[in-house]
Amino acid sequence: MSVMKIGFLDIEWVDLLDVLLLAFLLYQIYFLVKGTIASRIFLGYLLIYLLYLVAKAVGLELLTTLLGYFISVGALALIIIFQQEIRRFLLIIGKSTNLANSRFFMRWFRPPTVSEPATPLKPIVDACKSMSSEFTGGLMVVSKNDDLDKFVQTGDSLDALVSKRLLLSIAGQYSPLRDGAVIITDDRIRAARCILPISENDEILTSTGFRHRAAIGITEVTDAAAIAISEETGRISLAIDGEFYANISSAELEEKLQDYLMDASKPRRRDNGKSNNHA
Ligand SMILES: Nc1ncnc2c1ncn2[C@@H]1O[C@H](COP(=O)(O)OP(=O)(O)OP(=O)(O)O)[C@@H](O)[C@H]1O
């Protein structure tokens, strides 16, 4: 059924839907790559494509052929270049269709209300407080819903009950487990010395070290929260969903962790990959 006619163009409902869906998809891709190196590559590729169109329209045959070759292998090249972003995009789709997190699902099949998160926060926050005052560096990941097996496997398995004493001894100056990250799921310390993905977001201050980039990185690809304690400054920082809360107090840490871990319906940010520094 025709909606409107512009000259020889007969526009139908399905065309409008097509354009709207394409605009929505491009908008999502824009937010996904915004602030990353990928956005510049994408822009560069777009400019080459525009140049190709102009060359073709003007009739520059040699240039058109050359650029045509470049663009024909472009799809494959884009998949290789954007593999991180495509992975992140599919993860977001996977997460947003996660039934357990869906508001609709929660409304009808709400599990019995619990007032405390599965992970005991007091020993974690107390350990962070001690580490902060003693300038002991540390990186702790607290799981929410996502499976962190892949990252647990990069470290040394522990499977011990969460306790302040154990967290402090892992982070201690002479501990062989102090490098890398500690991963906590529910009330268990699952592993130490784990390697986390480093955030590639170029909006993060260049002075930010690898411990803090790793804290942001893990929260960009999973729904876990990550705490970094700086060895240099003793500051406590928290990363959630790619957002970075720098230099927070132990009370703020506990409050933010509590809110985040208890909020099962909290939707993931749309502009995944964009980190903000909340100093
Ligand atoms: N990808 C990673 N995964 C897990 N841990 C990491 C990773 N990168 C660095 N770390 C840990 O962070 C420690 C300190 O790294 P770096 O000095 O670059 O970080 P930083 O952010 O400047 O932290 P600090 O303020 O404590 O110096 C490393 O010794 C290592 O234990």
Describe this structure in words.
- Catalyzes the condensation of 2 ATP molecules into cyclic di-AMP (c-di-AMP), a second messenger used to regulate differing processes in different bacteria.
- InterPro entries: C-di-AMP_synthase, CdaA, CdaA_N, DisA, DNA_integrity_DisA_N_sf, DNA_integrity_scan_DisA_N.
- One of its GO terms (molecular function) is diadenylate cyclase activity.
- It is an enzyme of class 2 (transferase).
- With 279 residues, the protein is an alpha+beta fold.
- It folds into two domains: 93 residues, no CATH class; 142 residues, YojJ-like (1 (3-Layer(aba) Sandwich), CATH 3.40.1700.
- Helix content is 48%, strand content 18%.
- It has an eight-stranded mixed sheet with strand order 4-6-5-3-7-8-9-10, sandwiched between helices. A two-stranded antiparallel sheet has the order 1-2.
- Helix 7 packs antiparallel against helix 11.
- The longest helix has 22 residues.
- Bound molecules: adenosine-5'-triphosphate.
- The site of adenosine-5'-triphosphate has 16 residues, from helix 10.
In brief, what are we looking at here?
With 279 residues, the chain is α+β, with helices and mostly antiparallel strands. It has eleven helices and ten strands. It folds into two domains: 3-95, no CATH class; 121-262, DNA integrity scanning protein, DisA, N-terminal domain (YojJ-like (1), CATH 3.40.1700.
Structural class by SSE content: alpha+beta
Bound small molecules, by name, code or SMILES, are:
adenosine-5'-triphosphate
SSE string, helices as H and strands as E = EEHHHHHHHEHEHEEHEEEHE
Count of DSSP H/I helices: 11
CATH superfamily of the largest domain: DNA integrity scanning protein, DisA, N-terminal domain
Helix content: 40-55%
How many domains, as an integer?
2
Taking all Cα atoms into account, the compactness measure Rg is 24 Å
Q: State the strand order across the main sheet.
A: 4-6-5-3-7-8-9-10
Strand content: 15-25%
For the biggest sheet, the summary is: 8 strands, mixed
Mean pLDDT reading: 82
Give the number of DSSP strands.
Answer: 10
CATH class of the largest domain: Alpha Beta
User: What separation lies between the terminal Cα atoms?
Assistant: 55 Å
